[in-house]
Specification:
elongated, Immunoglobulin-like, about 20% helix
Length: about 325
């Protein structure tokens, strides 16, 4: 921005120009600067503390052992005590967040996992920079059909006589368990597939709302392809690169960015197609949407430029007519 300001300070208009023409030059110059304005970026920061591995675990009791191991690492310079517990969770629809269940909500949740979990130990003491592991056991013989979900919570306890440590109070490790009763159901449908954009902008992102109608969690994968008005493939994106789960009887939103292969896109009707699959059985779904887009052109800026040019032409003609009358 400083470069543009310095240009404005050193730019002198010819003295012989009329007031109207000088105003026209200034408007045109401001328009040019507006079209070139850059956008800023933001960065995130990460702080060290206590870590847990894995932070997310998937266990299929049909093929995996009914126990798994969590490893906690103390990255601080103080001694830490961890108290372990388990709490059920469910997914908030239309978001990437989860909500922990307590009391009546937890007891009525048919996908609860906490009832089938036990610990090797409920407490861990970690010296500075020390790493320790603990085993978690799942009651495979008694667990009911479908998927079951809980978070292993590690509450950080610090003695009052110790120096305060800048860490989070609780660590969480999410556990996704699929039972092996023979009654696990995989089913789902595409609730929404549409571009994410403003007005008639060419979209570089698409929204998928996937409705999981089964009783187990699944991870949808797939591709999104965009074709121009002539049927040429101009963009492609990979669905769910982060391998995010969709919990049973819920709707999960997936945003997918696409990579455009052509430098210039013409205005017209574009077609986007989604091909996806999910679950152990590889069930397939597809959808498509047709949309009008301005392509690589910015209709708003073009209209604004046309208005400015028309205004300058009007001022010029009016000035010319005035000179002829004189």
């Amino acid at each position: 921005m400083q470069n543009y300001r310095s240009k404005f300070k050193t730019f002198y208009l010819p003295a012989k120009l009329s007031l109207a023409r000088r105003a026209g030059f200034l408007i045109a110059l401001l328009t040019f600067a507006f079209l070139l304005l850059p956008y800023g970026n933001a960065q995130a920061q990460v702080q060290p503390g206590i870590t847990v591995m894995p932070s997310i675990a998937h266990i299929d009791l049909a093929v995996d052992p009914s126990e798994y191991e969590l490893t906690y690492t103390n990255n601080t310079n103080s001694e830490i005590t961890l108290n372990l517990s388990v709490q059920d969770f469910t997914e908030l629809e239309e978001s990437y967040k989860i909500t922990f269940l307590e009391g009546k909500e937890a007891s009525n949740y048919k996908y609860s996992l906490s009832s089938w979990i036990s610990f090797e130990t409920r407490s861990l003491e970690l010296s500075p920079k020390e790493k320790k592991s603990v085993k978690i056991f799942i009651d495979k013989a008694r667990i009911t059909k479908g998927g079951h979900y809980a978070s292993i919570l590690a509450e950080i306890v610090q003695p009052d006589n110790k120096k305060q440590v800048n860490v989070k109070a609780v660590l969480s490790s999410l556990l996704f368990v699929r039972a092996s009763t023979g009654q696990e159901i995989e089913d789902g449908l595409i609730s929404t597939f549409k571009p994410l954009r403003d007005g008639v902008e060419y979209p570089d992102s698409f929204i998928l709302r996937f409705q999981n109608k089964g009783n187990v969690h699944v991870i949808p994968y797939g591709t999104i392809e965009v074709f121009d008005p002539f049927g040429n493939l101009v963009a492609k994106g990979i669905l769910n690169e982060g391998s995010l789960d969709a919990l049973p009887e819920s709707i999960r939103r997936y945003d997918t960015k696409t990579t455009t292969y052509q430098s210039v896109l013409v205005p017209g009707f574009y077609k986007a197609t989604l091909s996806m699959h999910f679950g152990k059985t590889g069930k397939k779904l597809s959808s498509s949407v047709t949309l009008f887009s301005q392509g690589s052109f910015d209709f708003g800026k073009i209209i604004f430029a046309i208005i400015i040019i028309s205004f300058l032409i009007f001022i010029y003609r009016r000035r010319t007519a005035h000179l002829r009358e004189n």
